[in-house]
């Protein structure tokens, strides 16, 4: 049976390659059919124009969405399911909230990450998802988790991040460091300590990262690349034959699973022996205490690591770059953290200007550039776009942040002030902005569970770093935004670090 399937896929693949090699210079005009749906941009019924643009999909989709009267397009790809991409806040509300149950992640998505994430919260739907969500939401509202996380954050910043940057600043003539890499490793330490109560200690750039960290990177990258395969049968075939990237993926996943299982068993032992207080505060201990089985707990914590690792680092990397181009904005952040040696939990609550800067950076460079659901049944979006059962429905934070219709004519300016409104009694206060207009953390029942934790982390880091150091990018060129599963800056952010004179 397996061989038969393999042959079938092989046949499909060969046919596909044939179509490609026969078609010279794709002509976009002949590929565009008039739409039967007045509210969407004409169906781009072509795998050819898709392929021509697949290396600049973000820009392509954004341009098309601007042309569409309701910021919604439908992309039809040969051999692939239809994709509806929307940057329309009303549609987003419908998908993520009003008709939530009709728009699960769906098997085509969960297949991509299923080998790595199993049925963990990030990669499940229905009952499997909602039971994990309930438990996790409960823990995330607990004061004890917030305090535990803050303590981890403080230690990691004061004892690791600041010393790493100090040593770069002290280096004669200034050493160039990759700030994105530093922030990634920082975020990985934090998310592992919070989720597993395990310290990978990977911020020291002179040492190689632990095997688990390396394996996680490889597994996440290869899983994400599956999604960019124009025909999914190709990666499925490679997996079946255990060759190429799929073989490397299998090995990396095995390393992740074995390492995490070891950590779980050690934790169980320590808990059984009474453990010390710290042994009971991390998510792993909390999930074990709730009586979940070993494999379910493993999948759950891996999901948390996956969801919490590269997002905050991406947001902060872009903000640090934007600040280097907007000195007046940086000065205002400095005003907010002036005279504060170590930031306290209460100080963070007051850093609304820093928060506005983070939102503004994520509007232009969202850590999750797009995110897809799959329609369980036929439906109609508020703008009239028809959805067929099985369609892939994508909401697109990157495009939304760049729509004149959503943010006004000055959408391409970095303006943290747009997040404030004047109140006669109190002066400027943070505006409440609809999460459907700004779905950077998703929205509705499945909104990012780590949102508050993420802001705490980012404010603390941005404040602590800027009050001590000047960050000076080495290159004057505009960095390139690369959207994988989470987005990052191509080639990192190479900077010189200088101590700030007070
Ligand atoms: C700037 C930082 C962050 C951004 C922009 C962000 C964004 C998102 C987005 C867009 C989703 C929805 C993804 C999807 O359903 O496909 C999500 C889900 C999630 N995030 Fe975050 N996230 C951030 C930080 C974090 C952190 C620090 C944690 C945890 C420690 C975290 C934990 C989660 C979890 C567990 C989910 C899955 C929730 C569910 O499916 O019910 N996130 N996040
Ligand atoms: C939600 O989706 C279902 C299909 O599952 C559809 O029949 C129904 O009309 C939709 N509800 C709303 C409020 O649009």
TrEMBL record:
Phosphoprotein in keyword set: no
Q: What is the annotated localization of this protein?
A: Membrane
Q: List the GO molecular function terms.
A: metal ion binding; monooxygenase activity
Identify the residues that bind heme: 448
Keywords linked to the UniProt accession? Heme, Iron, Membrane, Metal-binding, Monooxygenase, Oxidoreductase, Signal, Transmembrane, Transmembrane helix
Q: What cofactor does this protein call for?
A: heme
Q: What span is annotated as the signal peptide, if there is one?
A: 1-23
Q: Which InterPro entries match?
A: Cyt_P450 (IPR001128), Cyt_P450_E_grp-I (IPR002401), Cyt_P450_sf (IPR036396)
- Identify its membrane topology class: Single-pass membrane protein
- One Pfam entry for this protein is p450
Q: Which GO terms describe its cellular component?
A: membrane
Q: Which family does it belong to?
A: Belongs to the cytochrome P450 family.
Which protein is depicted? Cytochrome P450
- Source species, please? Eruca vesicaria subsp. sativa (Garden rocket)
Its taxonomic placement starts with:
Eukaryota, Viridiplantae, Streptophyta, Embryophyta, Tracheophyta
